[in-house]
Write the structure tokens for this entry.
Amino acid sequence: MKASGIVDMASDVVKSAVSRQDEITVVEAGNMWNKLLARYDSIENILVLMNYVKDEDLRKETQIVLKKIRQQSEQLAKLMAEYSVSTIPRPASEIKISVGEPSFTDRYIFARIFQNIKWLLPVHIVSFIQSTSPKVRKMFKGFLLEEMDMYDRLRDFGLKKNWLQSYPEYEGGENKSQEKPSIMEVAQMWSKLAARYKTMEFTNHMVNLARDPDLTAAIVMGQDTLKEQITELEKMLQKYVSPLPARPPEAEKATRPVDAIPDRYIFRQIFRGIQSFLPLHMVAYQESNTPAVRKEFKKLLVEEINIYDKFVSYGLLKGWVFKPPSFKG
């Protein structure tokens, strides 16, 4: 092939990437850049710390984390190239430090890696919430779920090694289980159930006011999930502690005033409610040490993530989700 033909092909690829920039928002482009930078920083940090690891189990766990972060970095850089978002120089593939006596303990190294993963989880939540482009949102959602699995693995490892501090155990109530949850876990269970009661009461009112049949169906779907979550949280609290928060009144079929509240307003209120719950679910999950409790909090978080994903898609179809300017401008 002639040189001119190669140049033309390269030019077409660049033009194609640039022309696709209106498919993503400027917020998504910025989040991708920030997340790639954070991953490259994590890779360099881990490569430095690996020089001081003595515990072979910790070395193995760290290599698993490093491999996953590298895979996510490659996926992120590839997608950024598709939309012609400027990338960042890659970190070195290996960093060797010649030392005499190691300066860091394995516990310190673990804490640095664990806290880095813990810090990234809320960042993933924000990136996911701010994404309206299906392809980008799907990637951020995948990163979030993968990071949660890594976090689970590292937390269990840290507890096994006695490298993580646990909150004091909850001593109140009549514990009907051999497991003793921490005071933080019980506080999260109680507050999450109280919030769920409040949300159920609110959606019971909103479903009576919605006119759009698709919106009504979406709210009913949300009500079914809320009922399931309330039942699960009630069982958890009854297992560890009593009394429960006061239940909301049963749903009532109310007469809807004509044109009282537009469907767009109803959707936006529920949508913002789900957005505000996601970080709260994340905090409860992150602060939980008891395996059964953390598993339940993780399940609630994943359910909320999936509900939000569906609400974004529905809201975009209706034109009720505010979309930032495209990256192309």
Observations:
- Confidence is low (pLDDT under 50) at residues 6-15.
- The chain has two domains: 3-160, 183-318.
- The longest helix spans residues 213-240.
- The chain is about 70% helix and 0% strand.
